[in-house]
Protein backbone atom coordinates (compact mmCIF):
# COMPACT_ATOMS: atom_id res chain seq x y z
CA UNK A 1 0.00 0.00 0.00
CA UNK A 2 2.04 2.92 -1.29
CA UNK A 3 -0.37 5.23 -3.09
CA UNK A 4 -2.64 7.14 -0.71
CA UNK A 5 -5.04 10.03 -1.27
CA UNK A 6 -5.85 12.41 1.58
CA UNK A 7 -9.39 13.81 1.57
CA UNK A 8 -10.94 16.53 3.72
CA UNK A 9 -13.51 19.24 3.98
CA UNK A 10 -12.33 22.74 5.07
CA UNK A 11 -10.08 22.43 8.11
CA UNK A 12 -9.42 24.81 10.99
CA UNK A 13 -5.96 25.89 12.07
CA UNK A 14 -6.23 23.48 15.02
CA UNK A 15 -5.85 20.61 12.54
CA UNK A 16 -2.45 21.74 11.23
CA UNK A 17 -0.22 19.88 13.74
CA UNK A 18 -2.22 16.68 13.20
CA UNK A 19 -1.92 17.01 9.42
CA UNK A 20 1.83 17.58 9.73
CA UNK A 21 2.15 14.57 12.01
CA UNK A 22 0.18 12.41 9.58
CA UNK A 23 2.35 13.50 6.65
CA UNK A 24 5.45 12.67 8.65
CA UNK A 25 4.12 9.19 9.40
CA UNK A 26 3.24 8.60 5.74
CA UNK A 27 6.70 9.75 4.65
CA UNK A 28 8.15 7.25 7.11
CA UNK A 29 6.24 4.54 5.24
CA UNK A 30 7.49 5.98 1.91
CA UNK A 31 3.95 6.50 0.64
CA UNK A 32 3.17 8.40 -2.55
CA UNK A 33 0.51 10.98 -1.74
CA UNK A 34 -2.25 12.84 -3.53
CA UNK A 35 -3.62 15.73 -1.48
CA UNK A 36 -7.08 17.21 -1.47
CA UNK A 37 -6.79 21.01 -1.84
CA UNK A 38 -7.98 21.51 1.76
CA UNK A 39 -5.20 19.24 3.02
CA UNK A 40 -2.62 20.93 0.80
CA UNK A 41 -3.38 24.24 2.52
CA UNK A 42 -2.23 22.67 5.79
CA UNK A 43 0.81 20.88 4.38
CA UNK A 44 3.99 22.68 5.43
CA UNK A 45 6.29 19.65 5.50
CA UNK A 46 8.25 18.76 2.36
CA UNK A 47 7.25 20.29 -0.97
CA UNK A 48 3.43 20.43 -1.25
CA UNK A 49 3.72 21.96 -4.72
CA UNK A 50 5.32 18.71 -5.91
CA UNK A 51 2.46 16.54 -4.66
CA UNK A 52 -0.44 15.96 -7.06
CA UNK A 53 -3.73 17.55 -6.07
CA UNK A 54 -6.95 15.58 -6.43
CA UNK A 55 -10.53 15.82 -5.19
CA UNK A 56 -12.54 13.55 -7.50
CA UNK A 57 -12.91 9.81 -7.93
CA UNK A 58 -11.51 10.12 -11.47
CA UNK A 59 -8.37 11.83 -10.20
CA UNK A 60 -7.92 9.25 -7.41
CA UNK A 61 -8.30 6.42 -9.92
CA UNK A 62 -5.83 8.02 -12.34
CA UNK A 63 -3.37 8.39 -9.47
CA UNK A 64 -3.86 4.69 -8.64
CA UNK A 65 -4.80 5.34 -5.02
CA UNK A 66 -4.90 2.14 -2.96
CA UNK A 67 -6.38 3.86 0.09
CA UNK A 68 -8.09 7.14 0.91
CA UNK A 69 -7.64 8.73 4.31
CA UNK A 70 -10.62 10.94 5.22
CA UNK A 71 -9.55 13.63 7.68
CA UNK A 72 -12.25 15.27 9.80
CA UNK A 73 -15.40 13.87 11.35
CA UNK A 74 -18.27 11.68 10.26
CA UNK A 75 -19.50 14.37 7.87
CA UNK A 76 -16.18 14.22 6.02
CA UNK A 77 -16.47 10.47 5.63
CA UNK A 78 -20.05 10.80 4.35
CA UNK A 79 -18.90 13.36 1.80
CA UNK A 80 -16.04 11.07 0.77
CA UNK A 81 -18.55 8.28 0.14
CA UNK A 82 -20.68 10.58 -2.03
CA UNK A 83 -17.63 11.87 -3.92
CA UNK A 84 -16.12 8.44 -4.58
CA UNK A 85 -19.06 6.97 -6.48
CA UNK A 86 -18.20 3.45 -7.58
CA UNK A 87 -14.41 3.91 -7.31
CA UNK A 88 -14.26 1.18 -4.66
CA UNK A 89 -11.11 2.53 -2.99
CA UNK A 90 -11.00 1.61 0.74
CA UNK A 91 -11.32 4.56 3.12
CA UNK A 92 -9.77 5.02 6.56
CA UNK A 93 -11.48 7.69 8.66
CA UNK A 94 -9.32 9.71 11.06
CA UNK A 95 -11.34 11.79 13.49
CA UNK A 96 -10.28 15.42 13.82
CA UNK A 97 -13.72 16.43 15.05
CA UNK A 98 -15.85 15.48 18.03
CA UNK A 99 -17.69 12.15 18.23
CA UNK A 100 -16.20 10.38 15.23
CA UNK A 101 -18.41 7.30 15.12
CA UNK A 102 -17.63 6.42 11.49
CA UNK A 103 -14.26 8.15 11.43
CA UNK A 104 -13.23 6.27 14.54
CA UNK A 105 -9.43 6.48 14.46
CA UNK A 106 -8.53 9.05 17.10
CA UNK A 107 -5.78 11.61 16.54
CA UNK A 108 -3.56 9.87 19.06
CA UNK A 109 -4.00 6.51 17.32
CA UNK A 110 -2.79 7.54 13.86
CA UNK A 111 0.61 5.86 14.12
CA UNK A 112 -0.85 2.54 15.27
CA UNK A 113 -3.60 2.60 12.64
CA UNK A 114 -1.18 3.36 9.81
CA UNK A 115 1.23 0.65 10.97
CA UNK A 116 -1.66 -1.83 10.90
CA UNK A 117 -2.69 -0.72 7.40
CA UNK A 118 0.79 -0.88 5.90
CA UNK A 119 1.42 -4.27 7.50
CA UNK A 120 -1.89 -5.72 6.30
CA UNK A 121 -3.56 -5.98 9.70
CA UNK A 122 -6.96 -4.71 8.60
CA UNK A 123 -10.23 -5.76 6.98
CA UNK A 124 -12.29 -3.99 4.34
CA UNK A 125 -15.96 -3.64 5.31
CA UNK A 126 -18.31 -3.31 2.35
CA UNK A 127 -21.04 -0.94 3.51
CA UNK A 128 -24.38 -0.89 1.70
CA UNK A 129 -25.43 2.37 0.07
CA UNK A 130 -28.95 3.67 -0.55
CA UNK A 131 -29.83 5.18 -3.92
CA UNK A 132 -32.68 7.36 -5.16
CA UNK A 133 -33.46 5.98 -8.59
CA UNK A 134 -36.41 8.24 -9.51
CA UNK A 135 -38.76 10.92 -8.27
CA UNK A 136 -36.53 13.94 -7.65
CA UNK A 137 -34.11 16.06 -9.65
CA UNK A 138 -30.76 15.96 -7.87
CA UNK A 139 -29.03 18.05 -10.49
CA UNK A 140 -25.38 17.06 -10.63
CA UNK A 141 -25.44 15.81 -7.04
CA UNK A 142 -24.87 12.14 -6.23
CA UNK A 143 -27.95 9.96 -5.86
CA UNK A 144 -26.51 7.79 -3.08
CA UNK A 145 -26.44 7.97 0.72
CA UNK A 146 -24.28 6.05 3.17
CA UNK A 147 -26.37 6.74 6.28
CA UNK A 148 -29.97 7.42 5.32
CA UNK A 149 -32.50 8.93 2.98
CA UNK A 150 -35.22 10.85 4.82
CA UNK A 151 -38.36 12.77 3.90
CA UNK A 152 -39.70 15.42 6.25
CA UNK A 153 -41.97 18.44 6.53
CA UNK A 154 -40.88 21.85 5.27
CA UNK A 155 -41.79 25.31 6.61
CA UNK A 156 -44.67 23.93 8.62
CA UNK A 157 -45.57 22.54 12.01
CA UNK A 158 -48.11 20.23 10.37
CA UNK A 159 -47.27 16.59 9.92
CA UNK A 160 -46.86 14.98 6.52
CA UNK A 161 -48.42 11.73 5.34
CA UNK A 162 -45.92 9.29 3.85
CA UNK A 163 -47.35 6.35 1.91
CA UNK A 164 -44.79 3.54 1.89
CA UNK A 165 -44.70 0.60 -0.51
CA UNK A 166 -42.29 -2.35 -0.51
CA UNK A 167 -41.83 -4.13 -3.84
CA UNK A 168 -45.11 -2.60 -4.96
CA UNK A 169 -47.12 -3.79 -1.93
CA UNK A 170 -48.63 -1.14 0.34
CA UNK A 171 -46.98 -1.11 3.78
CA UNK A 172 -48.43 1.82 5.70
CA UNK A 173 -49.46 5.46 5.66
CA UNK A 174 -47.18 7.21 8.15
CA UNK A 175 -48.66 10.37 9.68
CA UNK A 176 -45.54 11.92 11.17
CA UNK A 177 -42.92 14.64 10.91
CA UNK A 178 -41.22 12.44 8.35
CA UNK A 179 -39.76 9.03 7.59
CA UNK A 180 -36.19 7.70 7.58
CA UNK A 181 -34.89 4.89 5.41
CA UNK A 182 -31.61 3.89 7.02
CA UNK A 183 -28.74 1.67 5.97
CA UNK A 184 -26.94 -0.52 8.55
CA UNK A 185 -24.25 2.16 8.76
CA UNK A 186 -26.87 4.84 9.38
CA UNK A 187 -28.67 2.77 12.02
CA UNK A 188 -26.47 4.44 14.68
CA UNK A 189 -27.38 7.94 13.48
CA UNK A 190 -30.67 9.73 12.80
CA UNK A 191 -32.67 6.48 12.90
CA UNK A 192 -31.30 5.58 16.33
CA UNK A 193 -32.27 9.01 17.72
CA UNK A 194 -35.85 8.28 16.58
CA UNK A 195 -35.96 4.90 18.31
CA UNK A 196 -34.63 2.67 15.53
CA UNK A 197 -32.55 -0.49 16.17
CA UNK A 198 -28.78 -0.78 15.77
CA UNK A 199 -27.63 -3.05 12.94
CA UNK A 200 -24.18 -4.50 12.37
CA UNK A 201 -22.48 -2.72 9.43
CA UNK A 202 -22.37 -5.98 7.46
CA UNK A 203 -26.12 -6.65 7.87
CA UNK A 204 -28.13 -6.97 4.67
CA UNK A 205 -31.09 -4.93 5.82
CA UNK A 206 -32.61 -1.46 5.79
CA UNK A 207 -34.61 0.18 8.59
CA UNK A 208 -37.77 2.23 8.07
CA UNK A 209 -38.12 4.61 11.04
CA UNK A 210 -40.91 7.19 11.47
CA UNK A 211 -40.01 10.62 12.83
CA UNK A 212 -42.34 11.57 15.71
CA UNK A 213 -45.31 9.53 14.46
CA UNK A 214 -48.84 10.50 15.48
CA UNK A 215 -49.77 6.86 16.14
CA UNK A 216 -47.71 5.43 18.99
CA UNK A 217 -48.18 1.85 17.77
CA UNK A 218 -46.11 2.60 14.63
CA UNK A 219 -42.62 1.24 15.21
CA UNK A 220 -39.37 1.01 13.23
CA UNK A 221 -39.42 -1.81 10.69
CA UNK A 222 -36.46 -3.87 9.42
CA UNK A 223 -36.62 -5.04 5.80
CA UNK A 224 -34.24 -6.92 3.45
CA UNK A 225 -31.96 -4.61 1.48
CA UNK A 226 -32.94 -6.16 -1.85
CA UNK A 227 -36.40 -4.56 -1.62
CA UNK A 228 -37.49 -1.58 -3.68
CA UNK A 229 -39.06 1.11 -1.52
CA UNK A 230 -41.49 3.67 -2.91
CA UNK A 231 -42.53 6.70 -0.88
CA UNK A 232 -45.30 9.16 -1.74
CA UNK A 233 -45.50 12.26 0.42
CA UNK A 234 -48.60 14.39 0.95
CA UNK A 235 -48.42 17.67 2.85
CA UNK A 236 -50.41 20.81 3.65
CA UNK A 237 -47.47 22.79 2.34
CA UNK A 238 -46.61 22.76 -1.38
CA UNK A 239 -43.22 21.14 -0.78
CA UNK A 240 -41.42 18.75 1.53
CA UNK A 241 -37.74 18.00 2.17
CA UNK A 242 -35.68 15.06 0.95
CA UNK A 243 -32.27 14.50 2.56
CA UNK A 244 -29.51 12.18 1.41
CA UNK A 245 -27.18 12.15 4.41
CA UNK A 246 -26.38 15.87 4.79
CA UNK A 247 -27.55 16.94 1.31
CA UNK A 248 -31.06 18.43 1.38
CA UNK A 249 -33.45 18.98 -1.56
CA UNK A 250 -37.01 20.25 -1.92
CA UNK A 251 -39.72 18.25 -3.68
CA UNK A 252 -43.34 19.00 -4.55
CA UNK A 253 -46.02 17.29 -2.49
CA UNK A 254 -47.39 14.21 -4.17
CA UNK A 255 -43.93 13.31 -5.46
CA UNK A 256 -43.13 9.59 -5.43
CA UNK A 257 -39.59 8.54 -4.61
CA UNK A 258 -38.20 5.18 -5.64
CA UNK A 259 -35.30 4.00 -3.49
CA UNK A 260 -33.23 0.85 -3.59
CA UNK A 261 -29.81 -0.52 -2.75
CA UNK A 262 -27.07 1.06 -4.84
CA UNK A 263 -25.29 -1.22 -7.34
CA UNK A 264 -21.97 -0.62 -5.57
CA UNK A 265 -20.87 -0.34 -1.94
CA UNK A 266 -18.62 1.85 0.18
CA UNK A 267 -15.40 0.19 1.31
CA UNK A 268 -14.25 1.21 4.79
CA UNK A 269 -11.13 0.06 6.58
CA UNK A 270 -11.25 -1.50 10.02
CA UNK A 271 -7.93 -2.39 11.63
CA UNK A 272 -7.49 -5.46 13.80
CA UNK A 273 -7.52 -3.23 16.89
CA UNK A 274 -11.01 -1.92 16.09
CA UNK A 275 -14.40 -3.57 16.38
CA UNK A 276 -17.99 -2.41 16.03
CA UNK A 277 -18.79 -3.43 19.61
CA UNK A 278 -15.79 -1.47 20.88
CA UNK A 279 -16.95 1.61 18.98
CA UNK A 280 -20.44 1.27 20.51
CA UNK A 281 -18.94 1.13 23.99
CA UNK A 282 -16.51 3.99 23.47
CA UNK A 283 -18.68 6.37 21.46
CA UNK A 284 -22.23 5.63 22.64
CA UNK A 285 -21.24 4.45 26.14
CA UNK A 286 -23.03 1.18 25.32
CA UNK A 287 -23.80 -0.61 28.58
CA UNK A 288 -21.85 1.87 30.68
CA UNK A 289 -22.79 2.13 34.34
CA UNK A 290 -23.04 5.88 34.97
CA UNK A 291 -23.93 5.53 38.67
CA UNK A 292 -20.32 5.77 39.80
CATH architecture of the largest domain: 3-Layer(aba) Sandwich
Query: How much is the average pLDDT?
Result: 90
Number of domains: 2
Note the beta-strand portion: 25-35%
- Secondary-structure element string: EHEHHEHEHEEEEEEEHEEEEEEEH
Number of helices: 7
The overall strand count is: 18
Shape: globular
Low-confidence stretches: none
Largest sheet: 6 strands, antiparallel
CATH superfamily of the largest domain: Probable inorganic polyphosphate/atp-NAD kinase, domain 1
Distance between the termini: 45 Å
Order of strands across the biggest sheet? 7-6-17-14-9-10
Helical residues, percent? 10-25%
Characterization of the model:
The chain is an alpha+beta fold. It has seven helices and 18 strands. The strands form four sheets. Strands 7-6-17-14-9-10 form a six-stranded antiparallel beta sheet. It has a six-stranded antiparallel beta sheet with strand order 13-12-11-8-15-16, with no helix packed on it. It has a four-stranded parallel beta sheet with strand order 2-1-3-4. The protein has two domains: 3-128 and 265-284, Rossmann fold (3-Layer(aba) Sandwich), CATH 3.40.50.10330; 130-261, Probable inorganic polyphosphate/atp-NAD kinase, domain 2 (Tumour Suppressor Smad4), CATH 2.60.200. It has helices spanning 16-28, 37-40, 57-63, 74-84, 110-118, 190-193, 276-284, and strands at residues 3-8, 32-35, 67-72, 91-95, 122-127, 130-134, 144-145, 148-152, 160-166, 169-176, 178-182, 205-211, 221-224, 229-234, 239-244, 247-252, 256-261, 266-271. The model has no long low-confidence stretch (mean pLDDT 90).
